[in-house]
Amino acid sequence: MKQRKIVLVFLGMAVALLLSVWTPFVANAAPGESSSGSAETKYKVYVVKEGDTLGIISRKFGVPIATIIKVNKLGDASRIYVGQKLRIPVREQKKKAQDKKKPTSTYKGPNVAKWIEVDLSQQRLYAHEYDKVVFTTRISSGVAGHRTPIGRFRVWAKVRSQTMSGPGYRLPNVQWVMYFAGENAIHGTYWHNNFGRPMSHGCINATNKAARWLYNWAPQGTIVIVHR
User: Fold this and answer.
1) For 73-122, how does the pLDDT look when each residue is reduced to its tens digit (9 = 90+)?
2) Which 3 state secondary structure label does DSSP give 92?
3) Among 131, 144, 154, 201, which is least packed by CB within 10 angstroms?
């Protein structure tokens, strides 16, 4: 009987020692979270709208469907309903944004207040203020047989909107037009969304939004440099 009491005393001391070591680690974790680092995850509450699917929500936030299902404990992944509140991890979204490499230019241009660079190899336009890029956008330059001319030019005319036509095409209401090399111009484009690939008869196609920004930013006489 005496030996049994001694054993119980030692067991009690061992349990107390383990608790004294383990407790600080448990105390640092929030309720329901482990100390493995998952406590750093933050969530955005998204309210499901009409027409939403898990695929649409996944693409919208850059979060895998499996993650959304797991976080929200969805029993049937195909059954989400309008007004349902879903928790979306935002840590993955931020990481994705950080992974996107911001387009930049290394071209050494003129030391002037404003000038435009068109990089045909990248199919991208850069607006410079001295050596600083203040705006960039994807563009579509001329296709084979209608290549955009390479060289140094100036914006010689600006037209708010007009009809453009040529062999095989007629385009009314082309907006935010800036002519820089003969009949070649930087202008807004509404008839395609294939920016990043050559698509034009020599002009520089940009979105209407980008062309409007450039039109308002660049005065007549602005230098335009086109290169590969």
Assistant:
1) 887 766 788 999 999 987 644 444 444 567 889 899 999 999 999 999 99
2) helix
3) 144
